């Protein structure tokens, strides 16, 4: 094999590895726990958060009064556009791999190009099925009843949802957290 063929094969394999890890990351559980505080009364904070969650499509499915827990569930919908785009990228990448295989083994003829018919739809379907799932949002009031002026809440939910909550309700509820949501995990 020539040098250019080796480098093309390597880049094509790296492309396939990148697609695999993107598909894996799109379905990864990113549930995070964060504690937030507010200088407003617990009932006011809970009321605003309850309304905000309902507006975003979360439905209350349970809770425990003794442990002060509210549980909400919501359905995450896959992006059809992204599924089609990944299917297209997977198809083009598989065709590129087929072209490299043809260069290495010319006796196979044009058959390796048919990898594009397998790789494209397969990557789009994998993304579409794995990224659609039910998510849970758990809200636990930590504040004691004798501390009516300070609210401490522990939230357990998807990282992106917690970032949205903090961004949208920070000023309205005077929320404070440790800022760990806005740090990159790398």
Overall description:
InterPro entries: CCB1 (IPR021919). The chain crosses the membrane at residues 6-23, 81-104, 110-128. Keywords: Membrane, Transmembrane, Transmembrane helix. It comes from Prochlorococcus marinus subsp. pastoris (strain CCMP1986 / NIES-2087 / MED4). It holds the Pfam family CCB1. The chain has 186 residues and is α+β, with helices and mostly antiparallel strands. The chain has a domain at 31-76 and 135-186: TATA-Binding Protein. Helices cover 51% and strands 22% of the residues. The chain contains 5 helices and 6 strands; from the N terminus they run αβαββααββαβ. The chain has helices at 3-26, 42-55, 80-104, 115-131, 159-173; strands spanning 31-38, 59-64, 69-76, 133-141, 151-158, 175-176. The protein has a 6-stranded antiparallel beta sheet with strand order 2-3-4-5-1-6. Strand 2 (59-64) and strand 3 form a beta hairpin. The longest helix has 25 residues, at 80-104. The protein is elongated. The two termini are 38 Å apart. The model has no long low-confidence stretch (mean pLDDT 85).
Provide a compact summary of the structure.
The protein is an alpha+beta fold and 186 residues long.
Query: Helix content range of the residues, please?
Result: 40-55%
Largest sheet properties: 6 strands, antiparallel
Shape: elongated
CATH second-level architecture of the domain at 31-76 and 135-186: 2-Layer Sandwich
Question: Which stretches are low in confidence, meaning pLDDT under 50 for 5 or more residues running?
Answer: none
The total beta strand count reads: 6
CATH H-level superfamily title of the domain at 31-76 and 135-186:
Kinase associated domain 1, KA1
Write down the overall mean pLDDT.
85
Rg is: 24 Å
N-to-C series of helices and strands: HEHEEHHEEHE
CATH class term of the domain at 31-76 and 135-186: Alpha Beta
């Amino acid at each position: 094999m020539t040098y250019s063929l080796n480098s093309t094969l390597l880049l094509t394999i790296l492309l396939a590895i990148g697609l695999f890890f993107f598909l894996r990351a799109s379905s990864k559980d990113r549930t995070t726990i964060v504690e937030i505080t507010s200088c407003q009364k617990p009932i006011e904070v809970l009321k605003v958060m309850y309304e905000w969650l309902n507006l975003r499509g979360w439905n209350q499915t349970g809770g425990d009064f003794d442990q002060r827990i509210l549980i909400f569930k919501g359905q995450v919908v896959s992006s059809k556009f992204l599924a089609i785009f990944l299917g297209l990228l997977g198809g083009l990448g598989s065709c590129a791999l087929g072209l490299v295989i043809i260069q290495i083994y010319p006796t196979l003829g044009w058959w390796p190009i048919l990898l594009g018919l397998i790789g494209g739809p397969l990557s789009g379907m994998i993304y579409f099925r794995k990224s659609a799932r039910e998510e849970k949002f758990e809200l636990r009031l930590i504040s004691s009843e004798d501390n009516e002026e300070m609210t401490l809440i522990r939230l357990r939910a998807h990282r992106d949802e917690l970032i949205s909550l903090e961004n949208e309700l920070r000023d309205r509820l005077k929320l404070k957290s440790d800022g760990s949501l806005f740090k990159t995990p790398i």
